[in-house]
Hints:
Order of helices and strands: HHHHHHH
Amino acid sequence: MLQPNNYSVVLLIQLTLLTFDLFVNSFSELLRTSPVIQLVLFIFQDISLLFNLFIFLLMLFNTYVFQVGLMALLLERFRVLILLSVLYLLFSVCLHSWMMNLRWMRADHFVWTDGLLVLYVFQRTAAVLYYYYYKRTAEYLGDPSLYKDSLWLREAFARTRQL
């Protein structure tokens, strides 16, 4: 079970990874003349997105709701974040690959195609939504009622058994 003192450490890790992701999204274009450093930052950014997804899933699996078998309830509650996480990771990997492919040999030129611009806008839009939903969900998963038996959980369990 997740203890209150452990939750604050996990939340700090999650927010640190989100802050790093925001930092890379904000300042990676300043390093376009140095493609190796930009590539390393992009790799770390994608790895941090995967870590955030794994931490979120581990926190879900740690809840009492999951342990009593109400996974559908959790999936319904956190469906948007799961979809946004996968979509944002996909957009990020595609954008990073395309940018590195276009700019690797021409680091001193400003290369920006129409397709890259569209993907950039989609990735940044997904990033804003991802930050909002991830932070909201990380704070919601700190609710103690998710980690112990409660009346609302018994009612939800009874409803699923009736179906």
